[in-house]
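User: Hi! Is it possible to get a structure for several chains at once, not just one? Here's what I have:
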Amino acid sequence: MSASPPGSLGSGQRAKRRNPLVPLKPPSVPPSGRSRAAQGLTAAAALGILALQRCEDCGAVQYPPRDACVQCLSAKLRWRPMRVGGELLSETLIRHGQELFFRHRAPFRAGLVRLDDGPSAIVALHRDCEPAPSRLRVRLVLDKAGQALMIGLPEKDTPDMADDSLIRDTTCAPRARKVLITDAKTKLGRTMVEALLAAGAELVWAGFAAPWKPSPHLDALGALEPVTLVPLDVSDETSVRELAGSIGGKVDILINTAEYHRPGTISSRPGVETARAEMEVNYFGLLRLTQAFSPALKARAADAPVSSTAWVNILSTRALSNDPAHGTFSASKAAAFSLTQALRADLQASGIRVINVFPGPIEDEWNALVPPPKLSPAALAKAVVDALERGLEDVYPGEIAKDLIARFLENPKALERELSG
Amino acid sequence: MRAAARPYDDVVVAAPVTIPYVRHSIKSAHWFLAQALAKLIEAARLRKTDIDGLAVSSFTLSPDTAVGFTQHIGLSPRFLEHVPMGGASAIVQLRRAARAVEAGEAQIVACIAGDTNHVDSFRLNTASFSRFARDAVYPYGSGGPNGSFALLTAHYMRVFGATPEDYGKLCVAQRRNALTNPLALFRKELSLEEYLSARLIADPIRLFDCVMPCAGADGFLVMRRATARKLELPHARLLAAIERHNAYPDDPVQFRGGWALDREALYAQAGVSPKDIDFLEAYDDYPVMTLMQIEDLGFCAKGDGPQFVRRHSFTTQGSFPLNTSGGQLSMGQPGAAGGHLGVVEAIRQLIGAPLGTQVRKARLGLVSGFGMINYDRGLCSGAAIFAAASGRKRGHKR
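Assistant: Yes, the chains can be modeled jointly so their relative placement is included. Here is the combined structure:
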């Protein structure tokens, strides 16, 4: 989101502050009711893919989503990626919204597009699209309600494209926003901070626990001007509450990188102390963060000139199906994954996006014995920035994660056996 | 090639009634429909039990349908239709009722439609109008038909060269027709300048292109001619009627409706041609649809609608009398009764008792219905041709 009109920011200056005497605008979201079939669009949009149903018997592409093929009545409709182009046949400028969400945004463009794969679709139009008849790019994105929205973009990128309200409402770009990274002491944490700064974040709070333990990464970050080091131990309720009390009302994006990970099968270690420590950070830590930070995040979802926008969880492919060589860690990530679904439901009404990232093994000391390929912290940080900028909801960064989710979706039982081998 | 439908065997329509429209009402659809039925009974001097057939259309009768309504009003019909087809409901009711009285399944069928309009009705109804609308229209913010019709209007203008002045001419003429109609909600003269300078609602649709949702009801009776004569009821004869649903599904954007598919059958059944028609009651929720109906019903070729508009005048005394009561654009849109409005006006013109100005020598009237923007286009189309009781089948030349 553009923090203020171009030219108003000198170098090193910060975005204009909101007037504290003006009451916060309550967030509104677009209508979220959809048929079950239409949730297939949502699933595709969560991954940033344009997918429509195609009939496996006759090949007809369907839109809007159906329960029977419009041509041959077959029930075998499968979601398939589609070409992302179309022709704008007609457009309108809607000047009066009926729902509050649209009333706040009118006037806005809508168009009727003939998709290259066949059907016609009503789309929300980017301001830079050429008038009809014209070619455009079509994308499936998630709107503020977390539901799929088809949008039309100009065929070629235009300057300041991201400043269109359509893009701002469907993405969570870090530009000019303030970001909390819950653990910046690791290589991943440091890389994440650097990536967010490179993406234009105005300020990053870099959390650190266990201050007695030296960290070269934290030392490096401390030298950067837009970074503020903040003490944060997610396994300590007081620590979490204190930090939320001081910065909670300013955080626009929260990225939870805090993680406790000890490899090993469940029989390799006596007792539950390690498992408990993993749960303390990976599960209860997340719960503490949600309780402390989500109320202010929700309240500021429609704030101007800059609003709160997203919550990012670094989970693991191991959350989907247990990796027995990392048995208790997998279990703690599965618990955290489940909690993120509750968090998503909690934040939905305010339009805050919950982004779940499921990396395969990361290049860190706890995966030292895992054979390559592994995901580099830089690749993971890049995936997070990309997800924020595109407004994705589910991210499987890198080839290992993509391979694993494909195997999981095709046959979860087979994956369970493969991982146990 | 489709098999031709049997001609109608002395089926007539009579007793046109209107329950005056109001912008908002705290009353229910049941109230409006019951009042329409009471007025039909009064107009035809019947007992309630004489009505043995009933057809009902309403958007706001929920959770009831026509079935629940029979118990509400204490009627025991042997023929019952619930027709949820929006602006095509009147024609569809008429077609069902006509065959029922022909076959002796009913003697007198009351065709009624009505809706209430609470302050928040419109938003709530559009939010849940159809599955496709909920999945693929409402999330895009247009909130109701304005946005969808704006897309059709813009496309029609681009492809066929219609101008705002063309649409405005129809709206202005219809308003002129409404000036003498005491039941029209808009009875202030509208100039083309006012039309053109009115605010845009969803470009290119302007304020006076939009119908105003209101509460109200309309009704008429369908029976055999012998029954009408016995009751000494002024009536008009049904010569022909068509309906079509989801026509031309492969058109990427709607520029024609089902009428184009069925108009030959319509005129063949009536034994008349478009030039014989004395007046047209078109379904006028947005002037672009009126243009499409003029084309698709054969008054001019596809795409010549704008030229036709420039060539003709559309007041009751004009060269092409159109929507002679003012249409929905000036009377208001009483929900599902929007299509009945045209039928009752046609009957009134043909029995010589219009609400407003009489069309001179009105012998043959064509009424067209259109309904249900399920997703990106209206799905239901219908039309009927009526003749004045004393008239010849072949009307005078216009």
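The interface with chain A takes residues 122-123, 126-128, 131-132, 134-144, 146-148, 150-152, 154-155, 158, 199-205, 249, 252-253, 375-376 of chain B (CB under 8 Å). The radius of gyration of chain B is 19 Å.

User: Great, thank you!
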